[in-house]
Every structure is written in structure tokens, then in C-alpha cells.
Write a structure and sequence with these properties.
single chain; about 400 residues; alpha+beta; five-stranded mixed beta sheet; three-stranded antiparallel beta sheet; 12 strands
């Protein structure tokens, strides 16, 4: 089970994706195999969480959609978001993040995130339109829109939205963050890169102190509060960029296109919670300190439970009708930047789709999709009838 479900996910990279492993994962469609394994486990063992054999630990794999709903709804007590694995990974680059905090500290940091990440604080759609215009011109001149062209533009948008236009060209900031996130993929197994983190934090602090009007850091908190939380916001923007590129490939549009992309190819493939008390599941008691594992691709793409499992189904949003379809998590731990991401990514998606014509991916959509190797053959919409585009793999 571990070999077909969890190990491929870890190999692809949970905190930052590894291109070579992501390519292999697409080649062998590892998520399709993982969904099949999860389905067979559910049929064999029933709905209660399946205890995994992990020496010295209590670990349970969640198999029932209703249990996913309960786990998320009853967070952070008795199901804490700050699991030991999550802390070991995220402390590499965001030691003060709300996601790895507990108790009153977590409540205070979470409240700060909820206030600052409101989409009305920044005109993210205007920033997106501004940068997308340059991307469209480049793609129209080359006839190709691929990840290598898309990613730099996406990061310029992210830096401007979060820190202001003064950070637009600061690639060193996000490159250092990427290095730290790469270390975080190894969690306990990689030593802390303190010098890199100090350099990253120093650059970040300079941008935050500028408090550029129109950015998320313009007001509403101290420099230290922002410096503690911004690394996670930038981390989340990376996942949002992946979602947007995949949404483009399947021909999605608007917020529903972004939500469907995140359903079809979850950028958080594993949701973790750690119990702080003894809990009962379908008549079975699990001890305090149990780590619960939710493998989201199974719950999002189970063809037995979902008739739309492998197709683009924007009609299910905003109410997907299944408690285990959680592209932005759920309950009190739901992503506080959900609406901001949908606004920003939706504007990018619609800006590109309105300007460029291309052929989307055909259905059924693949279970594993390597965004690094997506390449869209595009043309300006004014010339769409003369030149039809196509989606290819490099």
C-alpha cells in the first residue's frame, strides 16, 4: 500500500515538486494506480480508518468520505493541523506559520491570516491582467505557451500581490524560498539551511517594511507578523500557479476552472491531522497522538463514487455535493487565502483564455498531469480559424 499510494506522492515532492519524478509519475500514471489501491482497501476493510504498520507510531489511513468531513470539521481540536511531519517540513522556511502552530498562538496567527488575505485588500485581478498582457504577447509571437514562459509571469504576479511592485523583479527572494522548500521535502532528514533562511528573511523584511500601498503587506500588522506568515503565502501561490497552468490545459475558465483543476489534480495530495485525545471511529478507538492521513486524489477521482471523476465538471461548483472533495481543505482549517487565490488565478486564466486559442486536453483527463512539460500551441483569437492550436508534451 505504501509503495503505490504514499511513496510516489513523497517522491514527486510534497513541498516543492521535483521535475524528474513528476515526469515519471505522469508516465506511469501513479495516481490512477493509487486510487485503485485505495478503492480496494475500502472494499476490503470497510469504512473505519486503516491502521498502518509504522514502528513507534499510531498512523491511520482515512477511507470514508464522512470521516474526512469529520476530521476537517473538528480541527484543530481534537484533530490538530500541526502534525509532527508537517512541523518538521515547514519549519525549514516558515517556523512561525499558523499551519504549524497550536493553541492560542495558532488562533492569533490564523486570525491575522483571515484578515489580511481578504481579496478586497488588493486589486489582484488588475495585477494579473497587467502581467498576462505581456505573457500573451510573448506566446503569440512564439506560438507556444509552456510552463517555462508561464512560471516567471506567475511569480511576478505573486510578488506584486503580496509585497508590491517593488518586489516584482526580486527573483532571488523566491529562488531562496524554493531552495528552502526543496530542503523541506526531506523534513527531518535534511539539515536546516540557516544562512539561506536568514538571507531570505532579510530580503523579505525589507519588502514588508516598505509597506507598499496596494499590496497585502500595506497595513494591518507589524513587520514581524507579516514576516512570520508571508513565506506560507508565497508557498501557496506556487501551488496556485500549478493549478492555473493545468486549468489552462484542460480549457477551464473562471473560478470554477481553478476549483476543478485543484479537484482533478490536488496540489495538496495528502492532508494530515494529529489527534490530541482518544477518538472513536465506527466503533474502534484510536489513541491520542494518532496521525490521520487523507489521500485526496482518491476522494477527488474515485470513479465508483463520482460519475464526473475523470472529466472537467465545472457544474459541481461551488457545492460539489461530496464532503471529501476539498481542494482548499475544509472546516476551521480551510485555506484562509482561498478567495484571493480564486480571484487571482481566475483572472490569469480568463485573461489568457480570452486572448489565445488552443485545443484543450481530451477526456478522460489523466490522473497524473506533469505541469512542467505542458506546452500549448497557441494563436491569437483573431486568427483562431486560420491556425488551430493543440496541447502537446515535450
Amino acid at each position: 500500500m505504501l509503495a503505490k499510494v504514499l511513496l510516489p506522492t513523497l517522491a514527486k515532492g510534497v513541498i516543492v515538486r521535483r521535475p524528474a519524478m513528476t515526469a515519471l509519475a505522469e508516465r506511469f500514471q501513479v495516481d490512477a494506480s493509487a486510487v485503485d489501491v485505495m478503492r480496494s482497501l475500502s472494499e476490503r476493510y470497510g469504512p473505519e480508518p486503516l491502521r498502518l504498520r509504522v514502528t513507534g507510531r499510531s498512523v491511520a489511513l482515512v477511507l470514508d468520505p464522512g470521516d474526512v468531513e469529520r476530521l476537517l470539521a473538528e480541527s484543530p481540536e481534537p484533530f490538530a493541523l500541526a502534525t509532527r511531519e508537517k512541523r518538521a517540513a515547514l519549519e525549514h522556511f516558515q517556523p512561525h506559520g499558523s499551519l504549524i502552530s497550536r493553541g492560542a498562538v495558532r488562533d492569533r496567527r490564523r486570525a491575522f491570516n483571515e484578515v489580511v488575505l481578504r481579496p478586497e485588500r488588493v486589486d489582484a485581478a488588475a495585477v494579473a491582467r497587467d502581467e498576462v498582457d505581456l505573457l500573451v504577447r510573448h506566446a503569440a509571437s512564439t506560438g507556444v505557451l509552456d510552463w517555462d514562459a508561464f512560471a516567471p509571469v506567475w511569480w511576478r504576479i505573486a510578488r506584486r500581490v503580496v509585497l508590491g511592485s517593488g518586489a516584482r523583479a526580486d527573483e532571488r527572494l523566491t529562488d531562496d524560498l524554493k531552495t528552502l522548500r526543496g530542503n523541506a521535502n526531506w523534513a527531518y532528514l535534511h539539515p536546516r539551511r540557516e544562512r539561506v533562511r536568514e538571507r531570505f528573511e532579510r530580503r523579505l523584511r525589507e519588502h514588508v517594511a516598505r509597506a507598499e500601498p496596494g499590496s497585502l503587506v500595506a497595513r494591518g500588522g507589524s513587520v514581524d507578523e507579516f514576516v512570520g506568515q508571508v513565506p506560507h503565502w508565497l508557498f501557496a501561490f506556487d501551488a496556485a500557479g500549478i493549478v492555473t497552468m493545468r486549468a489552462l490545459a484542460m480549457g477551464g475558465s473562471g473560478a470554477a476552472g481553478i476549483l476543478e483543476s485543484a479537484r482533478l489534480w490536488p496540489t495538496t495530495p495528502v492532508i494530515l491531522r494529529e489527534s490530541t485525545a482518544l477518538t472513536s471511529w465506527h466503533g474502534t478507538w484510536l489513541p491520542s497522538g494518532t496521525t490521520f492521513v487523507v489521500f485526496t486524489p482518491y476522494f477527488h477521482r474515485d470513479p465508483v463514487r463520482l460519475p464526473h471523476a475523470d472529466r472537467y465538471a465545472p457544474e459541481i461548483w461551488p457545492h460539489p455535493g461530496d464532503p471529501a472533495i476539498v481542494p482548499f481543505s475544509g472546516g476551521p482549517g480551510v485555506c484562509p487565502g482561498r478567495d484571493l487565490v480564486l480571484t487571482t488565478a481566475g483572472a490569469v486564466l480568463d485573461g489568457i483564455r480570452s486572448a489565445l486559442a488552443y485545443e484543450p486536453l481530451s477526456e478522460p483527463l489523466p490522473a497524473t498531469l506533469d505541469h512542467f512539460r505542458l506546452s500549448l500551441a497557441v494563436s491569437l483569437r483573431s486568427a483562431a480559424e486560420a491556425t488551430r492550436g493543440g496541447v502537446t508534451r515535450l
